[in-house]
Amino acid sequence: MPEGSSANNTEAYLLGLSSLKSLNLANKYVQKFVMSGENKLEELILGHPNKYYYNPYWSSDTSAARISLTGSTYLQKFNLQNCVSFRSALDFSPCPIINTILLTGSSVSAITLPRNGNLIELRLPITIKNLIIDSHK
Fold first, then answer.
1. Pick from 54, 51, 35: nearest CA to 92
2. Cα(32)–Cα(35) distance, rounded to whole angstroms?
3. What are phi and psi of 28, to 5 degrees?
4. Local confidence band at 27 (pLDDT 50, 70, 90 cut-offs)
5. Residues 73-98, buried b or exposed e (16+ Cβ, 10 A)?
6. Using CA atoms, how far apart are residues 100 and 76, in angstroms rounded to an integer?
7. Adjacent-strand bridge partners of 14
8. Best label site of 2, 32, 47, 119, fewest CB within 10 Å?
9. 33, 57 Cβ separation under 8 angstroms
């Protein structure tokens, strides 16, 4: 756990899980997700396709609700569907081979995609204000 943090039930810190390939935390209702160091995670599910899904812990305070994908060079699929209270921006630049990003039903305001990516499926929320695409195939 990072210095100055305390244990609670709304934050997920993944440390030393270098062989994990898929992680589904949709039913854990996290508020903050931070990846630390290189990992082999290919699929990260924080949301759910059910339109009635609701995570009460994503805060309208964008400094509290945070997702960091640092070290996620193997990440291919990301799901934040129906996390309506998540209003922060997302940076996928550390994820060079990501091919599926599902954000419908969330309130994500902006996303940054990796350079020279090979995106197959991108589902954006109606709240998107900024989309940065650089040399996608």
1. 35
2. 10
3. -100, -15
4. confident
5. bbbbbbbbbbbbbbbbbbbbbbbbeb
6. 6
7. 35
8. 2
9. no
Look at 25 and 66; give whichever has higher pLDDT. Answer: 25
Predicted TM-score (pTM) of this structure: 0.82
> Could you count the other beta carbons within 10 Å of the beta carbon of residue 103?
23
Q: What's the CA gap between 62 and 46, in Å, rounded?
A: 17
Report which of 44, 49, 25 is spatially closest to residue 90, judged by C-alpha positions.
44
Terminal alpha carbon distance of the chain? 38
CA 42 – CA 81 distance, rounded (Å) = 17
Number of other CB atoms surrounding residue 7 within 10 Å: 7
Secondary structure (DSSP) of the chain: --TT----SSEEEE-S-TT--EEE-GGGT-SEEEE-S-----EEE-S-SSTT---TTS-S-TTTSEEE-TT-TT--EEE-TT-TT--S-EE-TT-TT--EEE-TTS---EEEPPTT---SEEE--TT--EEE--S--
Specify the range with the lowest mean pLDDT, choosing from 1-5, 14-18, 24-28.
1-5
